[in-house]
Protein backbone atom coordinates (compact mmCIF):
# COMPACT_ATOMS: atom_id res chain seq x y z
CA UNK A 1 0.00 0.00 0.00
CA UNK A 2 2.77 2.40 0.91
CA UNK A 3 4.70 1.60 -2.29
CA UNK A 4 1.59 2.28 -4.41
CA UNK A 5 1.00 5.54 -2.57
CA UNK A 6 4.61 6.58 -3.12
CA UNK A 7 4.31 5.62 -6.79
CA UNK A 8 1.18 7.73 -7.23
CA UNK A 9 2.78 10.68 -5.48
CA UNK A 10 5.80 10.49 -7.78
CA UNK A 11 3.60 10.40 -10.88
CA UNK A 12 1.57 13.35 -9.61
CA UNK A 13 4.81 15.26 -9.01
CA UNK A 14 5.98 14.42 -12.55
CA UNK A 15 2.69 15.66 -13.97
CA UNK A 16 2.98 18.93 -12.06
CA UNK A 17 6.59 19.46 -13.17
CA UNK A 18 5.61 18.74 -16.77
CA UNK A 19 2.79 21.31 -16.56
CA UNK A 20 5.15 23.91 -15.09
CA UNK A 21 7.71 23.25 -17.84
CA UNK A 22 5.06 23.81 -20.53
CA UNK A 23 3.85 27.00 -18.89
CA UNK A 24 7.43 28.28 -18.80
CA UNK A 25 7.88 27.47 -22.51
CA UNK A 26 4.62 29.12 -23.52
CA UNK A 27 5.48 32.18 -21.43
CA UNK A 28 8.87 32.45 -23.11
CA UNK A 29 7.23 32.21 -26.52
CA UNK A 30 4.86 35.05 -25.67
CA UNK A 31 7.69 37.21 -24.31
CA UNK A 32 9.97 36.72 -27.32
CA UNK A 33 7.11 37.25 -29.75
CA UNK A 34 6.21 40.55 -28.07
CA UNK A 35 9.80 41.83 -27.92
CA UNK A 36 11.03 40.88 -31.40
CA UNK A 37 9.68 40.93 -34.92
CA UNK A 38 9.65 37.64 -36.84
CA UNK A 39 12.42 37.13 -39.36
CA UNK A 40 9.89 35.68 -41.84
CA UNK A 41 6.41 37.25 -41.80
CA UNK A 42 4.86 34.79 -44.27
CA UNK A 43 3.43 32.43 -41.63
CA UNK A 44 -0.12 33.96 -41.64
CA UNK A 45 -0.37 33.71 -45.44
CA UNK A 46 -2.88 31.03 -46.33
CA UNK A 47 -4.01 30.72 -49.94
CA UNK A 48 -7.17 28.82 -50.73
CA UNK A 49 -7.01 25.06 -50.88
CA UNK A 50 -6.45 23.61 -54.34
CA UNK A 51 -9.63 21.59 -54.03
CA UNK A 52 -12.88 23.30 -54.97
CA UNK A 53 -14.29 22.62 -51.52
CA UNK A 54 -13.20 25.37 -49.11
CA UNK A 55 -14.27 24.95 -45.49
CA UNK A 56 -15.45 27.59 -43.02
CA UNK A 57 -14.17 30.77 -44.67
CA UNK A 58 -16.47 33.32 -42.97
CA UNK A 59 -14.68 36.30 -41.30
CA UNK A 60 -13.97 35.71 -37.59
CA UNK A 61 -15.33 37.87 -34.78
CA UNK A 62 -11.85 38.46 -33.29
CA UNK A 63 -9.43 38.45 -36.24
CA UNK A 64 -6.55 39.89 -34.18
CA UNK A 65 -6.47 36.86 -31.87
CA UNK A 66 -6.74 34.51 -34.81
CA UNK A 67 -3.94 36.33 -36.63
CA UNK A 68 -1.68 36.04 -33.56
CA UNK A 69 -2.22 32.29 -33.40
CA UNK A 70 -1.70 31.86 -37.14
CA UNK A 71 1.53 33.89 -37.13
CA UNK A 72 2.89 31.66 -34.34
CA UNK A 73 2.63 28.60 -36.60
CA UNK A 74 6.11 28.43 -38.11
CA UNK A 75 8.46 26.00 -39.85
CA UNK A 76 7.01 22.47 -40.03
CA UNK A 77 3.90 23.66 -38.21
CA UNK A 78 2.87 25.46 -41.41
CA UNK A 79 2.82 22.12 -43.22
CA UNK A 80 0.87 20.36 -40.48
CA UNK A 81 -1.76 23.12 -40.37
CA UNK A 82 -2.05 23.17 -44.17
CA UNK A 83 -2.46 19.39 -44.35
CA UNK A 84 -5.09 19.47 -41.61
CA UNK A 85 -7.00 22.11 -43.56
CA UNK A 86 -6.56 21.03 -47.19
CA UNK A 87 -5.13 17.52 -47.16
CA UNK A 88 -2.02 16.40 -49.01
CA UNK A 89 -1.95 18.78 -51.97
CA UNK A 90 1.73 18.82 -52.94
CA UNK A 91 4.39 16.14 -53.26
CA UNK A 92 6.61 17.57 -50.52
CA UNK A 93 3.80 17.54 -47.97
CA UNK A 94 4.01 13.73 -47.93
CA UNK A 95 7.18 14.09 -45.84
CA UNK A 96 4.87 14.82 -42.89
CA UNK A 97 3.05 11.81 -41.54
CA UNK A 98 -0.70 12.04 -40.97
CA UNK A 99 -1.30 11.40 -37.26
CA UNK A 100 -0.89 14.99 -36.06
CA UNK A 101 -2.87 16.60 -38.93
CA UNK A 102 -5.69 14.08 -38.49
CA UNK A 103 -5.89 14.77 -34.76
CA UNK A 104 -5.77 18.53 -35.39
CA UNK A 105 -8.70 18.20 -37.80
CA UNK A 106 -10.71 16.08 -35.34
CA UNK A 107 -10.13 18.41 -32.38
CA UNK A 108 -10.90 21.50 -34.48
CA UNK A 109 -14.20 19.95 -35.58
CA UNK A 110 -15.24 18.71 -32.14
CA UNK A 111 -13.83 20.15 -28.90
CA UNK A 112 -12.70 23.51 -30.32
CA UNK A 113 -15.38 23.86 -33.00
CA UNK A 114 -17.23 26.65 -31.07
CA UNK A 115 -14.12 28.84 -31.45
CA UNK A 116 -14.17 28.79 -35.26
CA UNK A 117 -16.56 31.77 -35.62
CA UNK A 118 -14.51 33.68 -33.03
CA UNK A 119 -10.92 33.33 -34.25
CA UNK A 120 -11.21 31.60 -37.63
CA UNK A 121 -10.78 28.05 -38.89
CA UNK A 122 -7.01 28.03 -39.48
CA UNK A 123 -6.37 29.59 -36.08
CA UNK A 124 -8.48 26.86 -34.48
CA UNK A 125 -6.46 24.24 -36.35
CA UNK A 126 -3.26 25.82 -35.02
CA UNK A 127 -4.69 26.00 -31.50
CA UNK A 128 -5.64 22.32 -31.80
CA UNK A 129 -2.03 21.52 -32.67
CA UNK A 130 -0.79 23.37 -29.59
CA UNK A 131 -3.28 21.61 -27.34
CA UNK A 132 -2.45 18.17 -28.74
CA UNK A 133 1.32 18.66 -28.45
CA UNK A 134 1.25 19.98 -24.90
CA UNK A 135 -1.26 17.43 -23.57
CA UNK A 136 0.64 14.59 -25.26
CA UNK A 137 3.83 15.85 -23.63
CA UNK A 138 2.29 15.56 -20.15
CA UNK A 139 1.37 11.92 -20.70
CA UNK A 140 4.74 11.24 -22.34
CA UNK A 141 6.49 12.44 -19.16
CA UNK A 142 4.37 10.11 -17.01
CA UNK A 143 5.08 7.13 -19.27
CA UNK A 144 8.80 7.90 -19.31
CA UNK A 145 8.79 7.82 -15.50
CA UNK A 146 6.95 4.48 -15.45
CA UNK A 147 9.35 3.06 -18.04
CA UNK A 148 12.36 4.37 -16.13
CA UNK A 149 11.24 2.72 -12.90
CA UNK A 150 10.95 -0.66 -14.63
CA UNK A 151 14.35 -0.35 -16.33
CA UNK A 152 16.42 1.38 -13.63
CA UNK A 153 14.65 -0.06 -10.56
CA UNK A 154 15.49 3.21 -8.84
CA UNK A 155 12.70 5.67 -8.14
CA UNK A 156 14.97 8.67 -7.45
CA UNK A 157 17.02 8.17 -10.61
CA UNK A 158 13.80 7.71 -12.60
CA UNK A 159 12.38 10.92 -11.19
CA UNK A 160 15.50 12.91 -12.06
CA UNK A 161 15.63 11.44 -15.59
CA UNK A 162 12.00 12.43 -16.20
CA UNK A 163 12.56 15.96 -14.89
CA UNK A 164 15.45 16.28 -17.35
CA UNK A 165 13.07 15.24 -20.11
CA UNK A 166 10.58 17.91 -19.01
CA UNK A 167 13.28 20.54 -19.55
CA UNK A 168 15.12 18.91 -22.45
CA UNK A 169 17.03 21.07 -24.98
CA UNK A 170 14.38 20.47 -27.66
CA UNK A 171 11.53 21.58 -25.39
CA UNK A 172 10.32 24.27 -27.79
CA UNK A 173 9.23 21.58 -30.27
CA UNK A 174 7.20 19.77 -27.61
CA UNK A 175 5.08 22.88 -27.13
CA UNK A 176 4.71 23.76 -30.81
CA UNK A 177 2.71 22.37 -33.71
CA UNK A 178 5.19 19.50 -34.15
CA UNK A 179 4.93 15.73 -33.90
CA UNK A 180 7.65 15.20 -31.25
CA UNK A 181 5.21 15.04 -28.33
CA UNK A 182 2.95 12.47 -29.99
CA UNK A 183 5.91 10.35 -31.02
CA UNK A 184 7.38 10.42 -27.50
CA UNK A 185 4.01 9.55 -25.94
CA UNK A 186 3.48 6.46 -28.09
CA UNK A 187 7.14 5.45 -28.05
CA UNK A 188 7.51 5.65 -24.25
CA UNK A 189 4.07 4.12 -23.73
CA UNK A 190 4.77 1.28 -26.15
CA UNK A 191 8.06 0.42 -24.45
CA UNK A 192 6.42 0.57 -21.03
CA UNK A 193 3.71 -1.90 -22.04
CA UNK A 194 6.23 -4.12 -23.81
CA UNK A 195 8.24 -4.43 -20.59
CA UNK A 196 4.99 -4.92 -18.67
CA UNK A 197 4.17 -7.99 -20.80
CA UNK A 198 1.27 -6.27 -22.59
CA UNK A 199 2.43 -7.00 -26.12
CA UNK A 200 -0.85 -6.18 -27.87
CA UNK A 201 -1.02 -2.69 -26.37
CA UNK A 202 2.69 -2.23 -27.08
CA UNK A 203 2.20 -3.11 -30.76
CA UNK A 204 -0.69 -0.65 -31.04
CA UNK A 205 1.17 2.25 -29.43
CA UNK A 206 4.43 1.68 -31.28
CA UNK A 207 2.50 1.44 -34.55
CA UNK A 208 0.97 4.83 -33.74
CA UNK A 209 4.48 6.19 -33.17
CA UNK A 210 5.21 5.12 -36.74
CA UNK A 211 2.26 7.17 -37.98
CA UNK A 212 3.51 10.24 -36.09
CA UNK A 213 7.14 10.24 -37.27
CA UNK A 214 8.98 8.15 -39.83
CA UNK A 215 11.62 7.03 -37.30
CA UNK A 216 8.80 5.28 -35.43
CA UNK A 217 9.39 2.27 -37.69
CA UNK A 218 12.70 1.72 -35.86
CA UNK A 219 10.66 0.68 -32.83
CA UNK A 220 10.01 -2.59 -34.65
CA UNK A 221 13.54 -3.49 -33.58
CA UNK A 222 12.38 -4.04 -30.01
CA UNK A 223 10.10 -6.89 -31.09
CA UNK A 224 12.86 -8.36 -33.25
CA UNK A 225 15.23 -8.22 -30.26
CA UNK A 226 12.64 -9.91 -28.04
CA UNK A 227 11.85 -12.62 -30.62
CA UNK A 228 15.51 -13.51 -31.18
CA UNK A 229 16.18 -13.93 -27.47
CA UNK A 230 13.00 -15.90 -26.78
CA UNK A 231 13.76 -18.23 -29.69
CA UNK A 232 17.30 -18.63 -28.35
CA UNK A 233 15.84 -19.45 -24.95
CA UNK A 234 13.63 -22.13 -26.52
CA UNK A 235 16.66 -23.70 -28.19
CA UNK A 236 18.56 -23.69 -24.88
CA UNK A 237 15.64 -25.42 -23.21
CA UNK A 238 15.89 -28.14 -25.83
CA UNK A 239 19.27 -28.96 -24.33
CA UNK A 240 18.87 -28.16 -20.65
CA UNK A 241 15.36 -27.42 -19.44
CA UNK A 242 13.63 -30.79 -19.18
CA UNK A 243 13.63 -33.20 -16.20
CA UNK A 244 15.75 -36.32 -16.36
CA UNK A 245 12.68 -38.46 -15.51
CA UNK A 246 11.37 -38.06 -19.08
CA UNK A 247 11.96 -41.05 -21.32
CA UNK A 248 14.36 -40.76 -24.30
CA UNK A 249 11.43 -40.94 -26.70
CA UNK A 250 9.65 -38.13 -24.84
CA UNK A 251 12.86 -36.10 -24.87
CA UNK A 252 12.94 -36.41 -28.64
CA UNK A 253 9.36 -35.25 -28.89
CA UNK A 254 10.00 -32.33 -26.56
CA UNK A 255 13.01 -31.33 -28.68
CA UNK A 256 10.80 -31.26 -31.75
CA UNK A 257 8.18 -29.22 -29.91
CA UNK A 258 10.69 -26.63 -28.74
CA UNK A 259 12.16 -26.25 -32.21
CA UNK A 260 8.67 -25.60 -33.53
CA UNK A 261 8.09 -23.22 -30.66
CA UNK A 262 11.27 -21.29 -31.51
CA UNK A 263 10.06 -20.89 -35.09
CA UNK A 264 6.67 -19.80 -33.83
CA UNK A 265 8.27 -17.16 -31.60
CA UNK A 266 10.29 -15.80 -34.52
CA UNK A 267 7.21 -15.64 -36.74
CA UNK A 268 5.27 -13.85 -33.99
CA UNK A 269 8.09 -11.34 -33.61
CA UNK A 270 8.17 -10.70 -37.36
CA UNK A 271 4.40 -10.20 -37.45
CA UNK A 272 4.55 -7.74 -34.56
CA UNK A 273 7.44 -5.88 -36.20
CA UNK A 274 5.50 -5.69 -39.46
CA UNK A 275 2.56 -4.17 -37.59
CA UNK A 276 4.84 -1.27 -36.66
CA UNK A 277 5.60 -0.74 -40.36
CA UNK A 278 1.96 -0.92 -41.51
CA UNK A 279 1.00 2.77 -40.95
CA UNK A 280 4.13 4.04 -42.69
CA UNK A 281 3.79 1.62 -45.62
CA UNK A 282 0.07 2.41 -45.96
CA UNK A 283 0.91 6.12 -46.13
CA UNK A 284 3.47 5.49 -48.89
CA UNK A 285 0.85 3.55 -50.84
CA UNK A 286 -1.57 6.43 -50.36
CA UNK A 287 1.02 8.78 -51.85
CA UNK A 288 1.62 6.44 -54.78
CA UNK A 289 -2.12 6.23 -55.44
CA UNK A 290 -2.50 10.03 -55.43
CA UNK A 291 0.65 11.05 -57.28
CA UNK A 292 1.41 8.22 -59.69
CA UNK A 293 -1.74 6.41 -60.79
CA UNK A 294 -3.79 7.84 -63.63
CA UNK A 295 -1.06 10.17 -64.88
CA UNK A 296 0.49 10.38 -68.31
CA UNK A 297 4.12 9.44 -68.87
CA UNK A 298 5.02 13.13 -69.15
CA UNK A 299 3.46 14.01 -65.79
CA UNK A 300 4.63 11.03 -63.79
CA UNK A 301 7.40 11.70 -61.26
CA UNK A 302 10.76 9.82 -61.38
CA UNK A 303 10.20 7.96 -58.11
CA UNK A 304 6.96 6.47 -59.48
CA UNK A 305 9.00 4.54 -62.07
CA UNK A 306 11.37 2.98 -59.54
CA UNK A 307 11.25 -0.76 -58.90
CA UNK A 308 10.26 0.03 -55.33
CA UNK A 309 8.62 3.47 -55.44
CA UNK A 310 9.64 5.05 -52.13
CA UNK A 311 8.07 8.49 -51.87
CA UNK A 312 9.47 9.50 -48.47
CA UNK A 313 13.09 8.86 -49.44
CA UNK A 314 12.65 10.79 -52.71
CA UNK A 315 11.15 13.82 -50.93
CA UNK A 316 13.90 13.94 -48.33
CA UNK A 317 16.60 13.72 -50.99
CA UNK A 318 15.03 15.89 -53.71
CA UNK A 319 13.58 18.75 -51.64
CA UNK A 320 15.84 18.83 -48.58
CA UNK A 321 19.10 17.28 -49.75
CA UNK A 322 19.08 14.50 -47.16
CA UNK A 323 21.48 11.65 -47.88
CA UNK A 324 24.57 9.81 -46.67
CA UNK A 325 27.42 12.32 -46.09
CA UNK A 326 25.64 14.97 -48.20
CA UNK A 327 25.73 17.39 -45.28
CA UNK A 328 29.48 17.11 -44.82
CA UNK A 329 30.38 20.55 -46.13
CA UNK A 330 32.51 23.29 -44.57
CA UNK A 331 29.60 25.75 -44.64
CA UNK A 332 27.60 23.37 -42.42
CA UNK A 333 30.16 23.50 -39.61
CA UNK A 334 27.96 25.81 -37.43
CA UNK A 335 25.15 23.24 -37.65
CA UNK A 336 27.51 20.47 -36.56
CA UNK A 337 28.52 22.64 -33.60
CA UNK A 338 24.86 23.22 -32.77
CA UNK A 339 24.23 19.48 -32.69
CA UNK A 340 27.52 18.56 -30.99
CA UNK A 341 26.20 18.61 -27.38
CA UNK A 342 23.43 16.06 -27.95
CA UNK A 343 25.61 13.91 -30.22
CA UNK A 344 28.40 13.96 -27.62
CA UNK A 345 25.93 13.02 -24.89
CA UNK A 346 24.58 10.15 -27.02
CA UNK A 347 28.10 8.90 -27.79
CA UNK A 348 29.09 9.03 -24.11
CA UNK A 349 25.91 7.20 -23.12
CA UNK A 350 26.63 4.40 -25.59
CA UNK A 351 30.36 4.12 -24.86
CA UNK A 352 29.89 4.19 -21.09
CA UNK A 353 27.28 1.43 -21.20
CA UNK A 354 29.62 -0.61 -23.41
CA UNK A 355 32.39 -0.13 -20.84
CA UNK A 356 30.11 -1.20 -18.01
CA UNK A 357 28.78 -4.23 -19.91
CA UNK A 358 31.23 -5.07 -22.75
CA UNK A 359 30.35 -8.76 -22.97
CA UNK A 360 26.64 -7.97 -22.92
CA UNK A 361 26.88 -5.32 -25.65
CA UNK A 362 29.15 -7.19 -28.05
CA UNK A 363 27.13 -10.40 -27.71
CA UNK A 364 23.85 -8.44 -28.10
CA UNK A 365 22.75 -9.88 -24.76
CA UNK A 366 23.09 -13.55 -25.68
CA UNK A 367 25.91 -14.11 -23.19
CA UNK A 368 24.09 -12.60 -20.23
CA UNK A 369 23.84 -14.72 -17.09
CA UNK A 370 20.72 -16.80 -16.46
CA UNK A 371 20.08 -14.82 -13.29
CA UNK A 372 20.04 -11.54 -15.18
CA UNK A 373 17.85 -12.94 -17.93
CA UNK A 374 15.41 -14.19 -15.34
CA UNK A 375 15.18 -10.65 -13.91
CA UNK A 376 14.47 -9.34 -17.44
CA UNK A 377 12.44 -12.34 -18.59
CA UNK A 378 9.93 -10.30 -20.60
CA UNK A 379 12.66 -9.60 -23.19
CA UNK A 380 15.04 -12.52 -22.84
CA UNK A 381 13.10 -15.62 -21.80
CA UNK A 382 10.27 -17.66 -23.20
CA UNK A 383 7.62 -17.74 -20.49
CA UNK A 384 7.00 -21.28 -19.15
CA UNK A 385 3.23 -20.87 -19.47
CA UNK A 386 3.62 -20.09 -23.16
CA UNK A 387 5.79 -23.15 -23.69
CA UNK A 388 3.34 -25.36 -21.82
CA UNK A 389 0.31 -24.10 -23.73
CA UNK A 390 1.96 -24.63 -27.10
CA UNK A 391 3.23 -28.01 -26.05
CA UNK A 392 -0.17 -29.10 -24.79
CA UNK A 393 -1.82 -28.05 -28.05
CA UNK A 394 0.62 -30.30 -29.95
CA UNK A 395 0.08 -33.20 -27.48
CA UNK A 396 3.78 -33.72 -26.98
CA UNK A 397 3.98 -33.53 -23.20
CA UNK A 398 2.98 -35.85 -20.44
CA UNK A 399 1.34 -34.80 -17.18
CA UNK A 400 4.74 -35.00 -15.44
CA UNK A 401 6.11 -32.29 -17.73
CA UNK A 402 3.08 -30.09 -17.15
CA UNK A 403 3.50 -30.45 -13.38
CA UNK A 404 7.15 -29.49 -13.73
CA UNK A 405 6.11 -26.39 -15.70
CA UNK A 406 3.59 -25.51 -12.98
CA UNK A 407 6.34 -25.56 -10.38
CA UNK A 408 8.53 -23.39 -12.59
CA UNK A 409 5.64 -20.96 -13.15
CA UNK A 410 5.07 -20.63 -9.42
CA UNK A 411 8.75 -19.89 -8.88
CA UNK A 412 8.70 -17.35 -11.68
CA UNK A 413 5.63 -15.61 -10.25
CA UNK A 414 7.18 -15.50 -6.79
CA UNK A 415 10.38 -14.06 -8.27
CA UNK A 416 8.39 -11.49 -10.23
CA UNK A 417 6.37 -10.52 -7.16
CA UNK A 418 9.55 -10.06 -5.15
CA UNK A 419 10.98 -7.96 -7.96
CA UNK A 420 7.84 -5.81 -8.14
CA UNK A 421 7.86 -5.22 -4.40
CA UNK A 422 11.42 -3.92 -4.64
CA UNK A 423 10.95 -1.97 -7.86
CA UNK A 424 10.10 1.34 -6.25
CA UNK A 425 12.62 1.16 -3.45
CA UNK A 426 15.57 3.40 -4.15
CA UNK A 427 17.36 2.10 -1.07
CA UNK A 428 17.50 -1.48 -2.35
CA UNK A 429 21.08 -2.58 -2.82
CA UNK A 430 21.28 -4.94 -5.81
CA UNK A 431 24.31 -5.90 -7.78
CA UNK A 432 25.42 -3.23 -10.30
CA UNK A 433 24.54 -5.53 -13.19
CA UNK A 434 20.85 -5.57 -12.25
CA UNK A 435 19.83 -1.99 -11.65
CA UNK A 436 20.60 1.55 -12.64
CA UNK A 437 22.37 2.45 -15.83
CA UNK A 438 24.00 -0.98 -16.16
CA UNK A 439 20.66 -2.80 -16.28
CA UNK A 440 20.30 -5.50 -18.90
CA UNK A 441 16.98 -3.94 -19.91
CA UNK A 442 18.86 -0.92 -21.29
CA UNK A 443 20.56 -2.93 -24.03
CA UNK A 444 17.88 -2.69 -26.77
CA UNK A 445 17.42 1.02 -25.98
CA UNK A 446 21.18 1.59 -26.29
CA UNK A 447 21.22 -0.19 -29.65
CA UNK A 448 18.27 1.93 -30.78
CA UNK A 449 20.03 5.13 -29.67
CA UNK A 450 23.19 4.12 -31.50
CA UNK A 451 21.36 3.65 -34.79
CA UNK A 452 19.49 6.95 -34.41
CA UNK A 453 22.63 8.89 -33.51
CA UNK A 454 24.52 7.46 -36.50
CA UNK A 455 21.61 8.35 -38.79
CA UNK A 456 21.46 11.90 -37.43
CA UNK A 457 25.21 12.43 -37.90
CA UNK A 458 25.83 10.77 -41.27
CA UNK A 459 22.50 11.09 -43.13
CA UNK A 460 20.23 13.82 -41.81
CA UNK A 461 20.56 17.58 -41.52
CA UNK A 462 22.71 17.32 -38.44
CA UNK A 463 21.17 20.27 -36.56
CA UNK A 464 17.92 18.28 -36.34
CA UNK A 465 19.73 15.83 -34.03
CA UNK A 466 18.78 17.89 -30.96
CA UNK A 467 15.08 17.15 -31.37
CA UNK A 468 15.55 13.86 -33.23
CA UNK A 469 17.37 12.30 -30.26
CA UNK A 470 15.34 14.08 -27.58
CA UNK A 471 12.87 11.19 -27.47
CA UNK A 472 15.54 8.61 -26.62
CA UNK A 473 15.28 7.51 -22.95
CA UNK A 474 18.96 6.49 -22.51
CA UNK A 475 20.00 10.14 -22.83
CA UNK A 476 18.05 11.00 -19.69
CA UNK A 477 19.00 7.80 -17.88
CA UNK A 478 22.68 8.47 -18.55
CA UNK A 479 22.34 12.12 -17.49
CA UNK A 480 20.69 10.99 -14.27
CA UNK A 481 23.48 8.48 -13.76
CA UNK A 482 26.12 11.20 -14.23
CA UNK A 483 24.44 13.37 -11.61
CA UNK A 484 24.73 10.54 -9.08
CA UNK A 485 28.49 10.07 -9.53
CA UNK A 486 31.19 11.62 -7.36
CA UNK A 487 31.47 14.57 -9.72
CA UNK A 488 27.70 14.75 -10.03
CA UNK A 489 27.45 18.40 -9.02
CA UNK A 490 29.76 19.42 -11.88
CA UNK A 491 27.85 17.30 -14.40
CA UNK A 492 24.57 18.58 -13.02
CA UNK A 493 25.55 22.21 -13.55
CA UNK A 494 26.79 21.46 -17.05
CA UNK A 495 23.68 19.51 -18.08
CA UNK A 496 21.24 22.04 -16.63
CA UNK A 497 23.17 24.89 -18.30
CA UNK A 498 22.91 23.04 -21.61
CA UNK A 499 19.16 22.51 -21.21
CA UNK A 500 18.49 26.08 -20.04
CA UNK A 501 20.54 27.72 -22.79
CA UNK A 502 18.89 25.70 -25.56
CA UNK A 503 15.43 26.37 -24.11
CA UNK A 504 16.10 30.11 -24.04
CA UNK A 505 17.81 30.27 -27.43
CA UNK A 506 15.38 27.86 -29.01
CA UNK A 507 12.27 29.65 -27.82
CA UNK A 508 13.75 32.98 -28.98
CA UNK A 509 14.81 31.86 -32.46
CA UNK A 510 12.13 29.31 -33.28
CA UNK A 511 9.13 31.36 -32.20
CA UNK A 512 10.32 34.28 -34.36
CA UNK A 513 10.85 32.14 -37.45
CA UNK A 514 14.66 32.07 -37.20
CA UNK A 515 16.58 28.83 -37.93
CA UNK A 516 17.25 26.73 -34.82
CA UNK A 517 17.22 22.96 -35.37
From TrEMBL:
Spans traversing the lipid bilayer: 12-32, 93-113, 119-145, 157-178, 190-208, 265-289, 440-459, 495-514
The protein's annotated pathway: Glycolipid biosynthesis; glycosylphosphatidylinositol-anchor biosynthesis
Biological processes annotated in GO: GPI anchor biosynthetic process
Membrane topology according to the record: Multi-pass membrane protein
UniProt keyword annotation of Transmembrane helix present: yes
Cellular localisation: Endoplasmic reticulum membrane
Enzyme class at the top of the EC tree: transferase
Top-level taxon in the UniProt lineage: Eukaryota
InterPro entries referenced in this protein's UniProt entry, alphabetically: PIG-V/Gpi18
Entry EC number(s): 2.4.1.-
PANTHER family noted in UniProt: GPI MANNOSYLTRANSFERASE 2
Family per record: Belongs to the PIGV family.
Protein name: GPI mannosyltransferase 2
Organism: Stephania japonica
The organism's taxonomic lineage, starting at the top: Eukaryota, Viridiplantae, Streptophyta, Embryophyta, Tracheophyta
Amino acid sequence: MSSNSSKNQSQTLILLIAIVSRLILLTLILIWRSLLSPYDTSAPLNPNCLSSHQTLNSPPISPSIGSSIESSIVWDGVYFARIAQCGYEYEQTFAFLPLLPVLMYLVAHTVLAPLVPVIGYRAVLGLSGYVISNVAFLFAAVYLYRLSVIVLKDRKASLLATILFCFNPASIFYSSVYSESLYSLFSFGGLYYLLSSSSTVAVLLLALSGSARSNGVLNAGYFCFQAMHQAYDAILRKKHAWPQSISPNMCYLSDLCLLKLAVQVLITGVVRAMCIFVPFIAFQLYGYYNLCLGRSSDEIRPWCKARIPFLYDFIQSHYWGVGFLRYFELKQLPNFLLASPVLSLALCAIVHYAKLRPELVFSLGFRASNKEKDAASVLYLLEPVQAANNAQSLEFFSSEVQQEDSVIRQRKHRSKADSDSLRYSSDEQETPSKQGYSSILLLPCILHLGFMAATAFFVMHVQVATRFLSSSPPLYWFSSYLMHTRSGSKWGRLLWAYCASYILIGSLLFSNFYPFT
